[in-house]
Amino acid sequence: MSTTASAADASAEVATRARRSRSRRTLRTRALQAAVLLLVILLWWAVAALRLIDPLYLPGPGAVLSAFVDANRCLVVDEASGRTVCGVQNYYLWEHLVASLQRIGLGVALAVVAGVVLGFLMSMWEPVNTALAPYLNFLRALPPLGYIGLIIVWVGIGDTSKYLLLFLAAFPPIVIATIDGVRGVREDQVLAARSMGAGPVDVARYVVLPAAAASILSGVRLSVGFAWTTVVAAELNNGIPGIGGLAYISGTQLNTPLTIACIIVIGLVAVALDGCIRLVGDRLTPWHGKV
Amino acid sequence: MSATPAAAEPLVSLEGISQRYITDGGEVVHALAETDLDIPRGQFVCVVGPSGCGKTTLLKVIAGFLTPTGGSARCAGEPITGPGAGRGVVFQQPNLYPWFSVRENVALGMRIRGISKKERAERAQEHLELVGLGDFGDKRPYELSGGMQQRAQIARVLANDSEVVLMDEPFGALDAITRARLQADLLALQRAQNRTVLFITHDVDEAVFLGDRVLVMSARPGRIVLDQEITLSAHAGKQLGEEMRRMPEFIELRERIAGAIEH
Predict the structure, then answer these.
(1) pLDDT in tens, A181-202
(2) Which intervals hold domain ABC transmembrane type-1 (chain A) (predicted)?
(3) What is the pTM of this model?
(4) Could you list the mean pLDDT of each consecutive 10-residue stretch along chain B, which spans 263 residues?
(5) What is the pLDDT of residue B220?
(6) Angle, to 10 degrees, between the axis of helix A159-183 and the axis of helix A93-124?
(7) In the CATH scheme, what is the code of domain B12-86+163-262?
(8) B65, B82, B112: residue with CB nearest A202
(9) CB distance B140–A186 less than 8 Å?
(10) B149/A contact by beta carbon, under 8 A
(11) What is the ipTM of this complex?
């Protein structure tokens, strides 16, 4: 017993040391990334300050920052009458962002439900796969901008068209990831469950779904990414409130500082969202890659 | 125990089981020639033979993973039509579910069969202790060594109360020391619970050590060429553990079986 205790101590020490060297490594990585970011901003500022490029095309970091701040507060536009304008296009920037996130959330949520169900059907029942796989690949290959016009003709310019477009963009990767996950389930794990008395529903619940979970979650990650890239297309028409619509409209109005602010917000939120999903995925499937 | 009189019918009964398949080249392979086998309740049967002799086919037929091309297979009087809770399987590769804790793995069969949570927890713990994993119930399978995972797999099958335990070279991937330890523990467990076991191995020593009866199989077509009862002076011989391996009778049986394999 004492040998196992000291072995446990030794392995704990090794683990601590490994963790320490890993955290040193991440620190170095972060420092390098921060330095590059600083350099880019500095360069941007210098180019703008020296007026190497017309500020209409490339406003400086300060102008972008103040566009961002102004888009989130109320401004007095007319001293005499005391008239104020809040945000842009009647909404604060964060409201535009929330509107887009809601669209993505609902579109992706519907895609997850439908995609997982269809993925299960296609992987468990070959004829369904044979019948539907070509259409799925066709849909997947289409750029959403290509069919947004058709969707508007079909369901109108309202929010339905946006949900539908985001759903269609998010749906194929989830189906494909589910099929991959279900097909990757180890046969002996299924047989073991059946030898314990498991019927098809038990097998699906206790073996196939958890075994496919990691793959499905990475499909969700992909599809949220697709949904983000599609959101601007979805909001080109009647997209206010919406961060994509705001980016587009401010561009057409030559409000480049606000356009750049929107682009930065879209990018940062996308990266943060992806990180969150990855974190949740790791929490939900802690066994992934460990067997 | 091996010599129970004809009072009860055998637990597992195979009649004229055969298995053929056609290779991609159109060649007919006789994986298993017509084979009869009766396994009485409480018997520990080991099957040895070279790879391709049909020993795994035999196990798969009893497990219900494979429908034989000929003959009939019955377990507890019922025809075998597919896998079922009555015939638990311990696989060669550890295949616990990593999304469950070790305890949940052991309790899964009972959960599927609708046994109450309380009883499940008690029986799972009891079986974890039986295989020496009493303190590891809350771990995840991947936190255990290969030998411990096989122990947990055995506990999972035993806790589910299956009538027959089918084991497909469960210790094949383990190192010699771990394997010897697991063999001794498995034998003690089987004796204590009077389980019916069919154990596939390619290791003659393992077969003689564990079995009440050893079947030797030969390839092309796969068939049983020797059905050897293992009686060591006083059956208590099996209680001897490691000592048993040095008994002259043990060595003699081992050589006879090894000889049968070579033919």
Answers:
(1) 999 999 999 999 999 999 999 9
(2) 97-277
(3) 0.80
(4) 56 90 84 90 92 88 92 90 92 92 95 93 92 91 92 92 92 87 88 91 91 89 87 61 80 88 75
(5) 78
(6) 40
(7) 3.40.50.300
(8) B112
(9) no
(10) no
(11) 0.88
Is residue A198 within 8 angstroms of chain B, CB to CB?
yes
Beta carbons within 8 Å of A269's beta carbon, 6+ residues apart: A97, A101, A228, A243
pLDDT the model gives residue A25: 87
Which positions in chain A touch B166 (Cβ < 8 Å)? 195
Q: What is the DSSP letter of A178?
A: H
Domain regions of chain B by residue span? 12-86+163-262, 96-161
Show contacts of A112-115: CB within 8 Å, 24+ apart: A112/A170, A112/A174, A112/A220, A112/A223, A114/A167, A114/A171, A115/A170, A115/A171, A115/A172, A115/A173, A115/A174, A115/A175, A115/A177, A115/A178, A115/A219, A115/A223
Q: Which residues of A touch B157 (CB under 8 A)?
A: 195-196
CA distance B27 to A209: 39
